[in-house]
Amino acid sequence: MGLTACQCHYLSGIYLLHTLRPIEAWQSFFQASSLYAVYLKNQATLRTVRDTVMLGDRIMTDEQSLPDDLEHDLQQRLYWSCIKSESELCAEVNLPRSSLHDIHYPYQFPSPPTPRSVDGLDESPQQVTPSSSNNTTATISSSTTPGHYSEPQDFKELHEWSWYNYLSGISLFKLSGRVNQAFYSRPPSSWATMNLLDMINAAYEFEKQIEQWKLTLPQAISCFHTTLYITTVTELQLAPWLRSANIRLRIYRPFLYRLTCKIAKDWPLIDPMRHLAGKAVSLCLEPLFDLGLRHRNAESWFRCRESACRALLLICAGKNGLLRRMELEHRASETLQQCISHLRYWEREADDVRLARQTLEMMI
């Protein structure tokens, strides 16, 4: 069994995400992951054969039966792409997971592509001459909304930055899994009965891990370490910020819930709990969230979910008095309208987005 069918299903899922069809996209990712799980099991069977593999009248040596370096690297990238895409959808909607999640995969990160595996990365003299280098350009475009721009980049440089962005996403995917295990393995109502001190310590530890992750980012894909004008943030810089911000919201959300519940036994820890809940509010108001909201890509549906989540958190903070305490009521009102406007823009393509917008408008 080859990898072509797996790749086709995966790319189908990416297309379906572009068209805001998450359930159909999950079906494609589930199929891709299931096929890849079968492929890995077949490869494991081949590796159990010591010196030769008998195929009818043909004898194939072990070296011939195992994939070459290029295919091996492709296998790694396909594994992480499948498992990550499927898991991200399952984190938003309660859907079954494929058998790929039950396989212990030995590679913590995929191997980077080699020059001969990617067109345009060949180091031959014909491709590094000034004239050809000037012609081999690509455009980074964050979105079609105001405040973004397109900047031509050398193809090799762009490919390198894209690869760093891919690896950073895998790192945060692993961290997101730990956050989900700590706070989201049970229904949200369980936050009211969890040990608050353990929750606070876990939140601070996750914050520390995110700060350590930030230090690993190359400047080309980071907007954390320098003061940037919002109009100069590129798509490759925005993507890691959005991923980390969404994880931080998932870290802080339980504390806003707990603060709203006003549990009597929590008062000795009210200050750190309110501090973490306040971080959820402040993060919801970050202007970087408003970039690229009308830019169609594989994240469009997730960004609608993100806007709905931010709006709900701000509504909650308004009802429990936290917005008034932080003197952020006016900014929160503007952000709420921005979130609703974002949902309205996409609602014709997804019924759940329309229902989210209608629900929010009834709550305001």
Helix-strand pattern, N to C? HHEEHHHHEEHHHHHHHH
Pairing-aware structural class of the strands and helices?
A: mainly alpha
The 3D shape can be described as globular
Helix content: 55-70%
Biased composition (Low complexity): 129-146
Organism: Clonostachys chloroleuca
InterPro entries: EcdB-like_regulator
Protein name: Transcription factor domain-containing protein
Structure explained in plain terms:
The protein is mostly helical. The protein has three domains: 101 residues, no CATH class; 128 residues; 73 residues. A two-stranded antiparallel ribbon has the order 1-2. α1 runs antiparallel to α2, α7 runs parallel beside α9 and α9 packs antiparallel against α10. The chain is globular, with a radius of gyration of 23 Å. About 10% of the residues have low confidence.
Secondary structure: elements and pairs:
Layout: H1 4-18, H2 22-47, E1 52-55, E2 58-61, H3 62-65, H4 69-92, H5 125-128, H6 130-135, E3 137-141, E4 150-154, H7 155-183, H8 196-215, H9 235-261, H10 270-284, H11 300-319, H12 322-326, H13 329-346, H14 351-363
Antiparallel strand pairs: 1-2, 3-4
Helix pairs in contact: 1-2, 2-4, 7-8, 7-9, 8-9, 9-10, 9-11, 11-13, 11-14, 13-14
Region (Disordered): 113-151
Organism: Clonostachys chloroleuca
Biased composition (Low complexity): 129-146
Quick synopsis:
With 364 residues, the protein is mainly α. The protein has helices spanning 4-18, 22-47, 62-65, 69-92, 125-128, 130-135, 155-183, 196-215, 235-261, 270-284, 300-319, 322-326, 329-346, 351-363, and strands at 52-55, 58-61, 137-141, 150-154.
